[in-house]
Write a sequence for this structure.
């Protein structure tokens, strides 16, 4: 790879890490935003949809980083997705401080509401749009809410991003929703839980299926030390008046796959893959509610997992959809940071957040053997923190075999070839107005031009970064 093309993103990334993370001190305070690298002949060209930290809603950009449209009405809990015909869908209003949306809504390109769901629970209305100012107020007026958080899927495409063989249903079909439910379960803890509740609704809003995480704690592979840590030390959030004990951040259908076609019933297309960020667990739920496949929480429990290494705080694990290179393999953003219960140590005497790693990696894994098929990381013996997002983030396999990665904490989205050549990079210019501004991106998705027929396909212009040693900000005349 051209060294000049590698250096700029490394500097920008180091700067962004310093700017966005309290873990690493800031190096410099000024860096480029927008598209910083673009090789049109090596990328899979299309639009990119991302959530923006400035509060002005989900945003659609082209490969050159031009803003094509923003939806301020969609500023709830992500993710946000687009469907063929220019339809866009996601949470409308954040119910702070609970990290959930009041309603899950779909709009057409003209801004007309196509579908809405907000009827799972009556809850106190949001007290503020500012996460720092919001607090739980059970006396606030009650509103109907979906309580959706962190994920949802529409029938027709199992993981919600483009595959030439699978088309999401824009105007029909069931919707899988990851939500919250408050309860007490003494098998888990004596504290009130903000439990993870997954449910499926019909187009008409009928509840078709539901699953509650706390009912299945015995199937999650926790050691006795981990169970003790969960019971005694699970973090209770005073603002939310509950304990988010698992923090499931992903739920998607498995979809058609070669493992099921070969007779492995665990991989039935209608089964659901979930990710617990706090417990370092990736699991498959059967439609009878049982957990039929699992990675973690202990990645030393067999030789194959030990060779893979501990996954920590992961986001968006999913089976690569049929029709894409690597179909059937598991793709996951392994964040690092801290996570896991048990294994009490001097740094974590209560056994919470017992595992740490100050670097990230993206893994493509054979889900039967746990063999790593493809990996992107900054290797041992180098400054591995240069690729590090300890929260949010996702990865998407593209039709040409490239992988788009959202290093979300640092607001950086980039595309790599199979040989890991960096061929596109975008740094989010959308900053929050917090005392310490953030431009984090929860998830980002690439979609084909033809999914938005209302727009003319944009001009694709290469972006070649300058040599850093010659890059200057001019002084005032």
């Amino acid at each position: 790879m051209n060294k000049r093309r590698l250096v700029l993103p490394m500097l920008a990334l180091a700067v962004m890490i310093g700017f966005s993370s309290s873990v690493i001190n800031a190096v410099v305070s000024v860096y480029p935003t927008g598209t910083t690298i673009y090789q049109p002949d090596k990328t899979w060209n299309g639009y990119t949809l991302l959530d923006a930290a400035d509060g002005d809603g989900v945003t659609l950009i082209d490969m050159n980083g031009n803003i094509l449209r923003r939806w301020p009405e969609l500023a709830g809990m992500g993710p946000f997705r687009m469907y063929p015909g220019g339809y866009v869908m996601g949470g409308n209003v954040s119910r702070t401080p609970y990290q959930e949306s009041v309603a899950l809504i779909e709009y057409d390109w003209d801004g007309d509401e196509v579908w809405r769901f907000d009827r799972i629970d009556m809850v106190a209305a949001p007290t503020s749009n500012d996460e720092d100012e919001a607090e739980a107020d059970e006396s606030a007026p009650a509103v109907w809410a979906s309580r959706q958080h962190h994920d949802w899927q529409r029938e027709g495409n199992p993981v919600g991003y483009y595959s030439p063989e699978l088309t999401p249903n824009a105007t029909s079909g069931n919707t899988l929703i990851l939500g919250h439910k408050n309860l007490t379960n003494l098998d888990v803890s004596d504290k009130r839980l903000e439990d993870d509740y997954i449910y499926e609704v019909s187009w008409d809003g009928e509840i078709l299926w539901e699953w509650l995480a706390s009912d299945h704690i015995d199937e999650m592979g926790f050691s006795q030390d981990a169970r003790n840590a969960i019971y005694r030390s699970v973090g209770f959030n005073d603002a939310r008046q509950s304990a988010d004990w698992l923090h499931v951040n992903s739920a998607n259908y498995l979809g058609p796959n070669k493992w099921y076609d070969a007779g492995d019933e665990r991989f039935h297309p209608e089964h659901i893959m979930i990710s617990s960020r706090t417990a370092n667990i990736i699991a498959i739920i059967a439609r009878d509610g049982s957990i039929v496949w699992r990675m973690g929480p202990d990645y030393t429990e067999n030789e194959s997992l030990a060779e893979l290494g501990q996954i920590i705080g992961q986001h968006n694990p999913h089976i690569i959809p049929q029709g894409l290179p690597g179909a059937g393999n598991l793709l996951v953003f392994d964040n690092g940071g801290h996570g896991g219960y048990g294994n009490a140590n001097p740094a974590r005497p209560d056994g919470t957040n017992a595992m740490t790693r100050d670097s990230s990696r993206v893994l493509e894994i054979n889900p039967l053997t746990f063999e790593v098929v493809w990996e992107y990381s900054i290797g041992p013996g180098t400054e591995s923190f240069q690729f590090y997002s300890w929260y949010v983030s996702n990865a998407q396999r593209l039709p040409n075999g490239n992988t788009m990665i959202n290093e979300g904490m640092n607001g950086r989205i980039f595309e790599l070839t199979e040989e890991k050549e960096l061929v596109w990079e975008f740094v989010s210019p959308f900053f929050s107005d917090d005392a310490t501004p953030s431009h984090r991106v929860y998830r980002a998705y690439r979609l084909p031009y033809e999914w938005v027929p209302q727009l003319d396909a944009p001009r694709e212009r290469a972006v070649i970064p300058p040599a850093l040693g010659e890059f200057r900000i001019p002084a005032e005349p």
Remarks:
- The chain has four helices and 29 strands.
- The radius of gyration is 21 Å.
- The domain at 34-468 is CATH 2.130.10 (Methylamine Dehydrogenase; Chain H).
- The helical segments are 3-20, 224-233, 258-261, 303-308.
